[in-house]
Automatic annotation (TrEMBL):
The keyword Transport applies. InterPro entries: Peptide/Ni-bd, SBP_5, SBP_5_CS, SBP_5_dom, TAT_signal. GO terms for biological process: peptide transport. One of its GO terms (molecular function) is peptide transmembrane transporter activity. This is ABC-type transport system, substrate-binding protein. It is found in: Cell membrane. Residues 1-20 form the signal peptide.
Length: 531
């Protein structure tokens, strides 16, 4: 039973929306809690198994960017508030009440009564304060997301005082959710290797290829683990991932290859397809010619045959963008400039720019779909007169080469999805266009008047609400579309497989599972069910 999941009905966009779902990511009206054919059987008490499309690296909750580790950590770590990845609403975490307003810039948050870490130690305000310091430390992954926090301080053992720089900051709970609370004395090395949290699960054993979790017996929140074990296996190879799902070695499999969807459906799996923010983006090196000329960048966008890319590399599971945000987002605004394949327009822009196309280097990461996009782009740009050398490598090697700033590349095509951290529009804008490595080191746009205007507007929007805020964000979307220094080429649809409408050969399925539109899986209240 296939469910096509749209998020529009879930998402609240204005800052006046009671600090709940702001702008968002994924969601779905599809797989409901009664989705198991074995629903009358025993629930829980078995092994909940997941096949991940990614490999683990550092688990450090204060600085984690690994898709595998972020997803695994979501079962172990809590913030004061958490994010529901189906609709990006803020839910209660270590705080079981909304922040109490002291004044326009000051709020108090109380910890859940009796909360303990999985090692048995009490959670105190000191742990929250120290976790904030770690997450907001200079050079950290989340710094730009937390810049509005002036301080988080201890009021008493179970209460923290939060001070922000923006009056009546509408995204308070969403941004507090980024800060995962860990024991104040845990070291970065210890947290990277095996975090300790307050969530429903705790880590028992971690390796380069898997994470083995067991229930956290100290957890006293509203979403306890129902199974005796959670096994997450790194199955980067798509064939291995599909095989494991077919055999029932995994009950849930993320990032199902498009060509395997019908196969898994015929085997009895349910497939959730969710529109998400996930992009396959293009980025230009503005530190060199001819990319300093906006007409040349726009010419490239018009030259790309995105329809062929979607058909050949994604089997139709992607959309051609008409804005920075997908249409399924409630604060979507059709940009002032949209790009569809138009070779004549591309050639005219090249002529207007006065440049003579020459040899360029197009880099891609080694993601199979992205490599296919790169091959198509190589052919498309040849039509404009460019001689394109295509280089594909693993993500770390690709970005290491780009970060050398030696002008050895011209264009990058790669995957990106900051919505795994949260779904509000400012976060999604800030990930690439804030005062960070993307703009300073990689794209070299941060000294431009357009970038400065963009960031001015982004800051203004944080203090606004309703239609006023939307109008400001619309201006941001237009600036990005007109300048296309880093912009989505495609916006993908994420398919996830689960044994939830039928049981595997050994009689197990999952109950309560819904796919999400970003990397990883959401396992809140998900449990096994037997015949």
């Amino acid at each position: 039973m296939e469910k096509y999941l749209s998020r529009r009905s879930f998402l609240g966009v204005s800052a006046s929306a009671a600090m709940m779902a702001t702008l968002a990511g994924c969601g779905g009206s599809g797989s409901d809690d009664s989705g198991s054919a074995s629903g009358s059987g025993k629930e829980g008490g078995a092994t909940l198994s997941v096949g991940s499309a990614y490999a683990p690296s550092s688990y450090d909750p204060a600085n984690c960017s690994s898709a595998f580790c972020l997803s695994a950590n979501s079962n172990v770590m809590e913030g004061l508030y958490n994010i529901d990845l189906h609709d990006y609403s803020a839910t209660y975490g270590l705080a079981d009440k909304d922040p109490e307003k002291v004044d326009d810039k000051t709020f108090e948050v109380k910890l859940r009564k009796g909360a303990k870490f999985s090692d048995g130690t009490d959670v105190t305000a000191d742990d929250v304060v120290e976790s904030f310091k770690k997450a907001s430390a200079e050079g950290g992954m989340y710094v730009s997301f937390l810049s509005m926090f002036e301080s988080i301080e201890k009021k008493d053992d179970t209460t923290v005082t939060v001070k922000v720089s923006i009056p009546d900051f509408s995204l308070l709970k969403e941004r507090l959710a980024i800060i995962k609370i860990q024991p104040k004395d845990i070291t970065t090395d210890e947290a990277s290797a095996k975090p300790v949290g307050t969530g429903p699960w705790m880590y028992k054993e971690l390796s380069d290829t898997s994470a083995h979790l067991v229930p956290n017996k100290k957890y006293n929140g509203s979403h306890p683990a129902k199974d005796k074990k959670l096994q997450i296996d790194s199955l980067v190879d798509a064939t291995a991932r599909v095989t494991a799902q077919e055999e029932g070695s995994t009950l849930i499999s993320e990032s199902v290859p498009p060509e395997s969807i019908d196969q898994l459906k015929s085997d009895g799996c349910k497939i959730d397809k969710v529109e998400g923010f996930g992009t396959r983006f293009i980025m230009f090196d503005l530190d060199k010619d001819p990319w300093k000329d906006v007409k040349v960048r726009q010419a490239v966008m018009y030259a790309l045959d995105t329809k062929k890319m979607i058909e050949n590399a994604f089997s139709g599971l992607a959309n051609i963008p008409t804005s920075y945000l997908p249409k399924s987002f409630s604060s979507y605004h059709k940009a002032s400039v949209t790009y569809k394949h138009d070779l004549d327009k591309a050639k005219e822009l090249i002529k207007e720019s006065g440049i003579t196309p020459g040899k360029i280097v197009l880099r891609t990461t080694d993601n199979a779909q992205v490599v296919a996009m790169g091959t198509q782009a190589q052919q498309d740009l040849k039509e404009l007169g460019f001689d394109v050398e295509l280089k594909s490598d693993q993500s770390p090697a690709t970005y290491a080469a780009i970060d050398q700033m030696d002008s050895s590349w011209d264009i990058l095509i790669a995957p990106g999805d900051p919505s795994c951290f949260g779904g509000d529009t400012d976060l999604l804008l800030n990930w690439w266009f804030g005062d960070n490595v993307w703009m300073k080191t990689r794209c070299h746009w941060n000294e431009s008047a357009e970038w400065k205007e963009l960031n001015k507007l982004m800051n203004e929007a944080l203090g606004q609400s309703g239609s006023e805020q939307q109008k400001t964000w619309n201006k941001c979307f237009d600036i990005l579309a007109e300048n296309v220094v880093l912009y989505p080429v495609l916006q993908v649809i994420t398919p996830t497989a689960s044994w939830s409408t039928n049981a595997t050969s050994d009689g197990y399925a999952v109950k309560g599972f819904k796919g999400i539109g970003t990397t990883g899986v959401d396992l809140t209240d998900v449990r096994t069910v037997s015949k």
